[in-house]
Amino acid sequence: MDEFVIQTDRLTKRYKNVVAVDDLSMEIRRGRVYGLLGPNGSGKTTTMGLLLGLQTPTSGTFSLFGYNHGHRELLRRVGALVENSSFYPYLSGYQNLRYFQKVSGRGSEEELESLVDRVGLSGRGHDLFRTYSYGMKQRLGIALALLGDPDLVFLDEPTNGLDPEGMIEMRELIKSLGDGSRTVLFSSHLLHEVEQVCDSVTIISKGRLIAQGEVSQLIATAGSEQIRIKTTDNSKALQLLSTPGWVEDISRDEDSLLITAPIERSAELTAALANAEVYVAEMVPIRKSLEEYFLEVTRRGNEDLQ
Amino acid sequence: MITHLLTLIEGEWFKLRRRWLPWILLAVIILVSQAFLWGFYAVHHITEGEGTNTFLSDYQYSGDTATLQVSCSDLLDGRLQERIQPLSIEERLIVEGEIAEWGPKECSDYAYEPEKFFMFVLPTSIVGSIYLVFLTGLPFMLIMILSASLLGSEYGWGTLRVVVSRGLGRWQLISAKLILCVLVAFGWLAVMVLLNIVSSILAGIIPPDEGVSLIILPEGDTWPSVLSTFGKFIGKALYATVPYICLGTFFVVLTQSTAQGISLSVMTYVAEAMVIPALLAISEKLERINEGLLSSNVREWISLGDSKAAVALKGAETPDTFQAFLVILAYSLVMLVASIWLFQRRDLSGAKGE
Lengths: 306, 354
Prior knowledge:
Structural class of chain B: mainly alpha
Shape of chain A: elongated
Order of helices and strands of chain A: EEEHEHEHHHEHEHEEHEHEEHEH
Strand content of chain B: under 5%
Helix content of chain B: over 70%
Strand content of chain A: 25-35%
Number of domains of chain A: 2
Shape of chain B: globular
Largest interface: A-B, 33 and 25 residues
Largest sheet of chain B: 2 strands, antiparallel
CATH topology of the largest domain in chain A: Rossmann fold
Distance between the termini of chain B: 32 Å
CATH architecture of the largest domain in chain A: 3-Layer(aba) Sandwich
Helix content of chain A: 25-40%
Number of strands of chain B: 2
Oligomer: heterodimer
CATH superfamily of the largest domain in chain A: P-loop containing nucleotide triphosphate hydrolases
Largest sheet of chain A: 6 strands, mixed
Strand order of the largest sheet of chain B: 1-2
């Protein structure tokens, strides 16, 4: 049975004249990696802050693990890295983790060493936090978020400041975190990263929910796919393919044709051309990326809001 | 809940003991305390026990029947009646009235000569210099700085967000910090007491006093009474630090900044302890307000109470000890509740980079 680990009901956060989160109702199921997407200032971090008890909602409610009371106790099942990684600069990375392990009573001392290794800080764990590079600070933040094996992990822009190799490692790590019953709520401005890592996404703009669902489904509903073909006779092909009803649009693109049609109709397309003695030399399906989908829905969303 | 609070206090200590600040503040307070002890030692030997209170002006009276001078020493030693004997009954009444006003003003800083001697001789020396350090108000300033820094630094580093997001509880966190400050204040007192014992032994075994003034009980005092007085003083001194710890925390919660929190705390302390009493002294009616001020009540609360000087100056209008206890409690509770109320409701933003 699916269980919602996060549910918000008309959650709103207002700062004087600015509405950071506006009537946000969303549901996050257990055991997945969720992407929280939105342009800068869309309310991603504020939403996480509200769920983590760092901010108080102006109105609306939310529940964690199905409970909307006893928030402090529920937070003991949550790990988080929100905004920049903040630690005590005069303590070492290991001592910082040790402090949080001590006061939250989660995890063990043995776990600390393995966590430091897991996030790639081996050999630097006993150095002072103030000597860490930005990327190392982020790694320690992720280690803290994972301390005590939490059921729900919030990761706000976790790959910020990491080198390309580190980003790949981190993506793999985040993907693996969603295996089993753990849920990860992951925000990033790198959309291809979200596409690679997340099963589902929630897109917000100006604090409002714009779209929510599985990544593949969202892209599929975003509009028709395109097929790029090169033929032995592009002019004849252009003429022939203007007729079938399932071809939404066809246009020339340099030495190719760009056809807006469902990719599963590719066989019919090649057959129709072959019957007219026009042969396909090259065929490339062009799927919409999450990035294109994101730009489209946020633009539409903003227009609706206006 | 208590276990959780104890865990948080332990966690706070884990962090605090690795910082420079508490150790620097401890060094400052030890230096001042030791300066008092060795200062009295030096003065006693330089003046050969004659005292250094010559700068205090004597009371002078020129009447029809006689002219006389009364010194603080006469007043504190109970020689007033003897000194005014030559005057007529009417003149005695006038002089007694005038001395009742003059005494508290002029002789409040008078260090009774034997008391100075006892400042570096065991057992009185154990808390002697600590009492004087507390009269300067320095421990209150230092503990305010510590309490303000303990919370304010977390705003600066942005670590409060991390702590709160782990479900440690806001009021529990602030309470742990406040309790740790009280424990640190106790630690400071304990270290000062230990060092005073060491210094007193040293003062007693080095020339020219070797073996002569190592341990001398004041006349009429017994070991149990002396130790009980010291125990009470330590307890009272600790209690007196509580409103200042709460004050430092309150201003940090209000401003969310260490620097601003410390500045406001120190400004409030200076205004409340020095500026306002001076302004209130303009009118007798306003002077009553002084009895409700924290600093005057703290002074009364930590006073040793039964010293000869205190008995001689009993005519002075100072709040009584029970009132002082209540005023300190009220200030502490108001500041504590205000701090927790504000801290519970405030949104926590990221690192301020202070």
